[in-house]
Amino acid sequence: MPRRQWTRSGLVQELQRLHGRGVRITSEALLAAGEAKILGAIARHLGSIERARALAQVELVVHRSATTERWSAARVLAEIRDRDRAGASLAASRVPRKLRDAAIGWCGSWRKAIEAAGLDYAATRVKPMTRPPHRVLRELRLLAAAHPELTRDALRHHPVGVAAIRRYGRLDAALAIAGVADWPRRRRAPAAPRGPEGDPRPRRDRPPSSLSRASTEGALRVWVARGRPIDAKVLRREYLELWNGILRHLGGINGARAFLCLPVERARWTRGRLAAELRSRHEDGQSLAPEVVRREAPALYRAAVRLGGSMTRAVTELVRTAEDVPIHHAARVLALIRARARDGRSLEARDVPSRLRGAARRYFRSWPRALAAAGLVVEDVVARRRWTDAELVQALRELARRRPELTRSELHRSRVGATAAKRFGSLAAALDQARLTSWPRAVRRPLPTRDEVRGLLRLRAARGDLLTISATRRDEPRVVKAALAHFGTWRAALADAGVGASDPAA
Question: Model confidence over 24-73: pLDDT tens digits?
């Protein structure tokens, strides 16, 4: 049948005809009605489904069940004006959901509904700073009077403190303007003595910390026991007080690692040290995949990014035989294949890392073609087993003995199952040849009963879902299968459930 050539006028007439048949002019309804080609024509000739409805002069009908609350455009606008007169918020995130949904359904969007009601949409939006300056200052004074013990850190995270920082930039500036002095309290450790027995550094050079040395050591043990890293950035972000205690009492990260009997990190990363660390990790059989290194050795990952540009580039340049990093060049695929052949490692596709195998297929279309491009004879490096019929039958029996729990789909995906199905025409024929009648096990779920079908159809009607057979088959194919098995036709199933009109094709 020749392909239909659509024109703008013909497309508009077809949309009007479908609308006359009761089909909603929406993407979902047209797909459910089997009119996917019209959607493509709309995209090519009209641009969007909204423009198609406008040209066809078709109004989008909002389906509502008998129990759904009735809305109209006039009622939506009246509700919006009532909320405005009552001083209630008209921000889209603050109004009742049913009002917002009705406004979108009748007016197209919440903004259009607000403007149709004669209101300024910009004035209804929630602003980042909802507190005016005088309210921020008043709330600061009230908070200082009600909670004199509040610490500075707690105030910075309090909603009033957050509003003050947003409004005035700094907490100190907001407190000065509010006239609040000596509040909130600062948590500082008592000054340590100076002199030969004291800390030789001046007090201003030591970070403030309320933790003693014993408390710092105890908190550090708990931090490590919870699996948290000994990393300066993480500590500063998540546990500043412990970080300050480490600086004050242990001297820094290396002091903390020495206290925990962990190897002390070297102070500086160089390209030579980076190469040595990467090669050592590769020789130990550890992965050099960027996501693995970032999780297991964050310091090594950061050094690779800083000195090599990226983890992948650093590994490519410094560890030329690494196969578990992204491969972006065909030449590297060939070099890795030749290296495997030179080292006597397997070149079977199943033994090759997935990244190398995937890159070979991407650049050379298949693994055997990549081997040929590397100058290797495929038959010499890849051992292809030639199964006889008797060997395949015996392999199936052996697999049934070793894996009695295997399902039919798992057997299909196995190497023996796929080869047997190809050799004998189907998996069932292969199993007949092996005389396996009760293996593999078939996982079956019973179809819904008549009562369950009625309940599921009524649930779809209550949700407002389409009740055509095509739409239901797309969403819940087992419901359609059970309905046809129990009632004979889709129309009879809908009639028995007492829900809407059936599909004309049912």
Answer: 888 777 777 777 778 778 877 777 777 788 888 876 655 544 444 678 88
| Residue 407 β-bridge partners | 441
| Range of lowest pLDDT (128-137, 187-196, 243-252) | 187-196
DSSP letter (8 states) at residue 250 = I
Query: Is 447's pLDDT higher than 50?
Result: yes
Question: How far apart are alpha carbons 335 and 327 in whole angstroms?
Answer: 11
Residue with tokens 């309940």: 455
Give the percent of the chain with pLDDT over 90.
4
Residues in Cβ contact with 282 at an 8 Å cutoff, skipping those fewer than 6 apart: 288, 319, 321, 322
d(CA 396, CA 434): 7
Any bridge partners for residue 185, and if so which? 151
Q: State the pLDDT confidence band at 480, using cuts at 50, 70 and 90.
A: very high
Is residue 246 within 8 A of residue 255, CB to CB? The reply is: yes
pLDDT value of residue 383: 59
Average pLDDT over the chain, rounded to whole?
Answer: 80
Burial category of 111 from C-beta neighbours within 10 Å (exposed 0-12, middle 13-18, buried 19 and up): middle
How far apart CA 159 and CA 156 sit, in angstroms, is 8
Q: Which of 486, 474, 407 is nearest to 447 (CA)?
A: 486
User: What amino acid occupies position 282?
Assistant: H
Distances (CA, A) of 454 to 162, 177, 178, 469, 495: 55, 69, 67, 14, 10
- This prediction has a pTM of 0.31
Which residues, listed in sequence order, are joined to residue 151 by a DSSP beta bridge?
185
- The CA-atom distances, in angstroms, between 209 and each of 103, 187, 189, 216, 234 are 55, 7, 6, 10, 17
| d(C-alpha 278, C-alpha 107), whole Å | 61
Nearest-CA neighbor of 432 among 478, 466, 405, 396? 396
Helix (H) / strand (E) containing 223:
helix 213-225
State the angle between helix axes of 8-20 and 49-56 in degrees (0 to 180), rounded to the nearest 10. 80
Answer with the residue of higher pLDDT: 222 or 169: 222
Question: Is residue 468 within 8 Å of 29, Cβ to Cβ?
Answer: no
Written as six digits, the tokens of 470 are 């095509």
Distance CA 64, CA 69 (A): 8
pLDDT mean over 158-171: 80
Report whether pLDDT(452) > 80: yes
**Residue 82 CB contacts under 8 Å (≥ 6 apart), including other chains:** none
CA 404 to chain centre: 37
| Cβ-based neighbours of 219, under 8 Å, separated by 6 or more | 211, 239, 242, 245
Q: Tell the burial category of 144 from Cβ atoms under 10 Å away from its Cβ (0-12, 13-18, 19+).
A: buried
